[in-house]
Amino acid sequence: MTAGEREGLPNRSIQPVYLDNQATTPTDPRVVEAMLPFFTERFGNPHSTAHAYGWDAEEAVERAREDLAALIGASAREIIFTSGATESNNLAIKGAARFHRAARPKVVTFATEHKCVLESCRQLEREGFQAVFLPVRADGLIDLDLLAETVDEETAVVSVMAVNNEIGVIQPLAEIGALCRERGAYFHTDAAQAVGKIPLDVNAEGIDLLSISGHKFHGPKGIGALYVRRRPRVRLEAMIDGGGQERGLRSGTLAPPLCVGLGMAARLAAEEMVEEQQRISGLKARLLEGIRGRLDGVLLNGDAERRVAGNLNLAFEGVDAEALMKAMPRLALSSGSACTSTSVEPSYVLRALGLSEERARASLRVGIGRFTSEADIDLAIEEFVDKVGGLRAKGSAAAE
Ligand SMILES: *Cc1c(COP(=O)(O)O)cnc(C)c1O
């Protein structure tokens, strides 16, 4: 028995190929290395102003804040550290609506948003706010005319995901930003799947609030951030009260190792994003061509062009995706988002595109990332071709 097996860890030699980079990404070893000193010798509380331990931690946290801000064209003072994109989305949407409840009691979002956005809006509804959930087009993109008809002078915040976590489509951020600015509504974007993957510029795109998650771009889990525009000033009601850290928007002692890790992830993304996305795009094309060259009835869910490099969402006609995943234990992938994957219902995102229940049930998400190799892709092609073929043959034999 190996040490890994004793501790319940997967045996590395039989560890499946990881193709679920939208659920989470491995922390980059360079990120881990940057974090380590802040657990031990550099353990200070960044809010301690009386001695060098505190100053050292504070300096490191502020450096991280600058690196993260630079990645999205913001200034460091506009970055609020949080526990992740879930918290950032809650703070942005509930915070904006509650602050402006008298004049602007309405929030607007879309059916394909992440659960934490949809549930934040539902909670506001229970508190007496009006929440509007708009449909999306069949390609997963939003309808700007429909949005223009819906956003009015009663709207506090419009929340639209930059890159969808299931189908990878990239929304027209600058157009949404301009429309919101015109009506005086805040534009919030959940950019958990966009940061480090596509260029983002909060000023060019008219973004007022932007949510970031560390573990979606090779940073640590348990940390994220919310960008909060200063000019013109965005006002939010805090959710966590206390010592007034993070501009009074998020009290509590910051975690310097996590902040430093997030900052390092941002620096690596700034340096490597363009090249990395090109490489990932090539891997995606290789996978798609490899599968489609040998299998018929493989359909792409979501727009093919306006799409992030690392995402494929494929429907295999006549195949049940759950059965297919079980048949391919050498591949780690998923049929939808990790947050809803315990339910047997087909993905609500795919259903919102107007896809039939049958097609949604035949769909799998493939998430390619920084540590995916060509050999991983070639193994995946073999697995898909073999197992989809096998399940289809079994299906037609059973039907005879
Ligand atoms: C992962 C994810 C979240 C949640 O982020 P956490 O940091 O895990 O809370 C929110 N939105 C999207 C689009 C995501 O992909």
CATH fold naming of the largest domain: Aspartate Aminotransferase, domain 2
Q: How many structurally independent domains?
A: 2
* Overall 3D form: globular
Return the string of H and E elements: HEHHEHEHEHEHEEEHEEHEHHEH
Bin the helical content: 25-40%
Largest sheet: 7 strands, mixed
Mean pLDDT: 95
Which small-molecule ligands are present, each listed once?
A: pyridoxal-5'-phosphate
Identify the CATH class of the largest domain. Answer: Alpha Beta
Q: Which percent band covers the strand fraction?
A: 5-15%
Q: How many H/I helical runs?
A: 12
CATH architect. name of the largest domain: 3-Layer(aba) Sandwich
Question: Number of DSSP strands?
Answer: 12
Q: Structural class, judged by helices and strands? A: alpha/beta
Instruction: Write the CATH homologous superfamily of the largest domain.
Output: Type I PLP-dependent aspartate aminotransferase-like (Major domain)
> For the largest beta sheet, what order do the strands appear in spatially?
2-8-7-6-5-3-4
Q: What is the C-alpha radius of gyration, as a whole number of Å?
A: 22 Å
Uncertain residue segments: 1-6
